[in-house]
């Protein structure tokens, strides 16, 4: 079966840049006296001196390894300095490392498309920069090639008796070389410069691989460490892969790599060359088969994504050996901690990057006390994410219960009864499906629209779904403290929603508590009645009544059928016909244009959808806006009366700040 194959004669210039012993460098920058000393960073756990999570290069010379415990490291290297990873809420607090990683990313992203692949590594697409350099100032026309670039390791370079440095210089200056090699030479000069800037501005060293695709660049960046770079010309690829153990290849470290070894007798990537694409497809499926066929030839068409921010946020903790959790209350305690951290990070992301996450996922690892042979995995579960610590905690616990029910089969809800049946050795919560909030007036609509989606699951009836399996490079419980930049929580499905109007009012309450008196009038009674009539259950009605005192402007925004946009001199009513299978809401976000009439677009999918109503901007009592802080008022007014839009209105930022600063949002 043919599968689209990327061009083997790839002429892109891709770099993979990896920080050297990253946590150690961050600690050494904090405490400069540690520089030059054998150093390692250990987990807070005090058992046998804690587990090593990062080992400096000076300590590696003594044989210290990441798999060791502190006491063991002391034995092989008595002078080693063990630095504790910062702790918050009884678990590793990686904020300082994340921030240090961001500093580096902001420098590395200066020369081309940049994808932050993990807490300490990025991919860069330098094709354009290299082409420009080749056209305008090729290596042979430069005053000199930097020392850092001349220290590059160029794979497959023939030394011919000359010094390596001279050969590398000759390679850089070879004006009649293959165009692709010339591009790589330019890429190597650019990367050397970037690494130098990183060192100058942050004091961190990093290593790099420069090649024609991501796979080769990643392989190369680990070949010469620390503080070095390796170039992979096309002509060297075959030889490189010929002897490369399959397990060294990204994505072949696990079961697939083992199957290649055991079932096909493939030990090196080059060994794969003997199998036809059809044979590999037959054995491993069409996509994996083709992927294996491609990597055997050094082919990888994966693009460098334009992404400086993580794709998801995760917070997790392992509970090895006797620390395993065996009661619901202990699970709940830890879930609460993890959710609190996750919630903080989400609010930080909202504040700093104007992004919101839409899916909450719970992963756990467990074993059964009465059936230790069982290989059954604890199923990961996900649901729409509601903002607010308490809501995330509540939903995470429900996800846990859903997973546990499935894991142990018949499940007794009462904690006493399920005691001694299972043990949890790892827990993590992650937030994914992160989307940006567009700036300006548009953001108001989008923001509330998204908030509707993320915040309206009923607390008693959370709809959970199995989460997609983790990617090999994603978050895993053995390493739960890692931030997640790759697609580890690939929730391929949106959870069907159980949104109700009653729940929206709950959001309103969260948004603006403490200002209830006198606000009923701000949403005209007729509209309140109308909304009330649309509520099906008594419970919903009661809740709605209770919520009457909430700020009407918020209710207005949260009313799923009440989004109005001034538009080109006509009246239009559009109404969502139903939720898509993916659970996405129809979006009719139109930029307001100065005009006289109103277009109404209903957004939402609940019980009152069929009774959509128009809401005209001139029906809004102006006093309603007074509830809001001045900068929010300005933005909302500008939306309602675009012709009066003040030049000074700061687009998009105030509204995000206002809501993100609400702890109970
Ligand atoms: N890390 C961790 N737990 C792990 C692996 C890594 O906490 N099991 C942290 C500590 C590392 C950082 O992530 O400093 C980056 O991991 P790397 O695998 O890139 O290793 P280092 O940067 O420490 O060393 P190297 O120079 O070999 O890349």
Automatic annotation (TrEMBL):
<protein>
    <recommendedName>
        <fullName>DNA polymerase eta</fullName>
        <ecNumber>2.7.7.7</ecNumber>
    </recommendedName>
</protein>
<dbReference type="GO" id="GO:0042276">
    <property type="term" value="P:error-prone translesion synthesis"/>
</dbReference>
<dbReference type="InterPro" id="IPR036775">
    <property type="entry name" value="DNA_pol_Y-fam_lit_finger_sf"/>
</dbReference>
<dbReference type="InterPro" id="IPR001126">
    <property type="entry name" value="UmuC"/>
</dbReference>
<comment type="similarity">
    <text>Belongs to the DNA polymerase type-Y family.</text>
</comment>
<keyword id="KW-0539">Nucleus</keyword>
<dbReference type="InterPro" id="IPR052230">
    <property type="entry name" value="DNA_polymerase_eta"/>
</dbReference>
<dbReference type="GO" id="GO:0003887">
    <property type="term" value="F:DNA-directed DNA polymerase activity"/>
</dbReference>
<keyword id="KW-0548">Nucleotidyltransferase</keyword>
<dbReference type="GO" id="GO:0006281">
    <property type="term" value="P:DNA repair"/>
</dbReference>
<dbReference type="GO" id="GO:0003684">
    <property type="term" value="F:damaged DNA binding"/>
</dbReference>
<keyword id="KW-0234">DNA repair</keyword>
<keyword id="KW-0479">Metal-binding</keyword>
<dbReference type="GO" id="GO:0035861">
    <property type="term" value="C:site of double-strand break"/>
</dbReference>
<dbReference type="InterPro" id="IPR043128">
    <property type="entry name" value="Rev_trsase/Diguanyl_cyclase"/>
</dbReference>
<dbReference type="InterPro" id="IPR043502">
    <property type="entry name" value="DNA/RNA_pol_sf"/>
</dbReference>
<dbReference type="Pfam" id="PF11799">
    <property type="entry name" value="IMS_C"/>
</dbReference>
<dbReference type="GO" id="GO:0009411">
    <property type="term" value="P:response to UV"/>
</dbReference>
<dbReference type="GO" id="GO:0046872">
    <property type="term" value="F:metal ion binding"/>
</dbReference>
<keyword id="KW-0227">DNA damage</keyword>
<keyword id="KW-0460">Magnesium</keyword>
<dbReference type="Pfam" id="PF00817">
    <property type="entry name" value="IMS"/>
</dbReference>
<keyword id="KW-0808">Transferase</keyword>
<feature type="domain" description="UmuC">
    <location>
        <begin position="14"/>
        <end position="253"/>
    </location>
</feature>
<dbReference type="GO" id="GO:0005634">
    <property type="term" value="C:nucleus"/>
</dbReference>
<dbReference type="Pfam" id="PF21704">
    <property type="entry name" value="POLH-Rev1_HhH"/>
</dbReference>
<dbReference type="GO" id="GO:0005657">
    <property type="term" value="C:replication fork"/>
</dbReference>
<dbReference type="InterPro" id="IPR017961">
    <property type="entry name" value="DNA_pol_Y-fam_little_finger"/>
</dbReference>
């Amino acid at each position: 079966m043919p599968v689209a194959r990327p061009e083997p004669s790839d002429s892109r210039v891709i770099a993979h840049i990896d920080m050297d012993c990253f946590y150690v460098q961050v600690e050494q920058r904090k405490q400069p006296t540690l520089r030059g000393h054998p150093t390692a960073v250990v987990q807070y756990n005090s058992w046998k001196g804690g587990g090593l999570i990062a080992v400096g290069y000076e300590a590696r010379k003594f044989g210290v390894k990441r798999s060791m415990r502190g006491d063991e490291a002391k034995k092989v290297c008595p002078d080693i300095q063990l630095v504790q990873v910062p702790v918050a809420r009884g678990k590793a607090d990686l904020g300082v490392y994340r921030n240090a990683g961001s500093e580096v990313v902001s420098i590395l992203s200066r020369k081309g498309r940049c994808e932050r692949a993990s807490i300490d590594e990025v991919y860069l697409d330098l094709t354009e920069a290299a082409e420009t350099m080749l056209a305008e100032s090729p290596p042979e026309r430069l005053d000199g090639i930097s020392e850092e670039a001349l220290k590059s390791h160029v794979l497959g370079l023939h030394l011919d008796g000359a010094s390596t440095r001279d050969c590398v210089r000759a390679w850089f200056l070879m004006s009649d070389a293959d165009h692709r090699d010339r591009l790589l030479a330019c890429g190597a000069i650019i990367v050397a410069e970037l690494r130098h800037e990183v060192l100058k501005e942050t004091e961190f060293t990093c290593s790099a691989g420069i090649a024609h695709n991501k796979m080769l660049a990643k392989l190369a960046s680990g070949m010469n460490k620390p503080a070095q770079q390796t170039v992979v010309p096309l002509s060297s690829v075959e030889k490189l892969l010929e002897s490369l153990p399959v397990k060294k290849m990204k994505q072949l470290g696990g079961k697939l790599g083992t199957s290649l070894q055991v079932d096909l007798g493939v030990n090196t990537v080059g060994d794969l060359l003997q199998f036809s694409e059809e044979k590999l497809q037959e054995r491993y499926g069409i996509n994996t088969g083709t992927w294996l066929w491609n990597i055997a030839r050094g082919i990888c068409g994966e693009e460098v994504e334009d992404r400086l921010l993580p794709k998801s946020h995760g917070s997790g903790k392992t509970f090895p050996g006797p620390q395993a959790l065996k009661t619901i209350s202990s699970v709940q305690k830890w879930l609460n901690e993890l959710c609190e951290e996750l919630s903080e990070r989400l609010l930080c992301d909202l504040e700093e990057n104007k992004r919101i996450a839409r899916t909450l996922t719970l992963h756990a690892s467990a074993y059964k006390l009465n059936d230790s042979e069982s290989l059954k995995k604890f199923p990961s579960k996900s649901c729409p994410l509601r903002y607010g610590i308490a809501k995330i905690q509540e939903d995470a616990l429900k996800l846990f219960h859903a997973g546990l029910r499935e894991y142990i089969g018949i499940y007794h809800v009462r904690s006493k009864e399920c005691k001694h049946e299972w043990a949890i050795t790892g827990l993590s919560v992650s937030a994914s499906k992160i989307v940006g909030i567009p700036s300006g007036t548009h953001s108001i609509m989008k923001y509330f629209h998204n908030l509707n989606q993320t915040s309206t699951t009923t607390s008693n009836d959370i709809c959970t779904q199995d989460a997609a399996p983790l990617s090999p490079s994603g978050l895993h419980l053995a390493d739960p403290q890692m931030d997640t930049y790759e697609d580890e929580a690939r929730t391929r499905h949106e959870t069907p929603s159980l949104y109700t109007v009653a729940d929206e009012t709950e959001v309103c309450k969260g948004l603006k508590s403490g200002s209830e008196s006198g606000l009923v009038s701000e949403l005209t009674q007729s509209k309140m009645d109308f909304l009330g009539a649309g509520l099906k259950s008594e419970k919903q009605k009661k809740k709605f009544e209770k919520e009457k005192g909430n700020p009407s402007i918020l209710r207005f925004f949260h009313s799923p059928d009440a989004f109005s946009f001034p538009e080109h001199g006509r009246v239009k009513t559009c109404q969502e016909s139903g939720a898509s299978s993916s659970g996405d809401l129809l979006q009719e976000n139109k930029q307001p244009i100065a005009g006289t009439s109103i277009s109404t677009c209903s957004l939402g999918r609940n019980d009152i959808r069929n009774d959509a109503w128009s809401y005209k901007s001139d029906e809004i009592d102006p006093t309603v806006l007074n509830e809001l802080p001045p900068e929010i008022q300005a933005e909302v007014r500008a939306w309602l009366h675009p012709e009066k839009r003040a030049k000074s209105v700061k687009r998009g930022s105030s509204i995000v700040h206002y809501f993100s600063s609400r702890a109970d949002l």
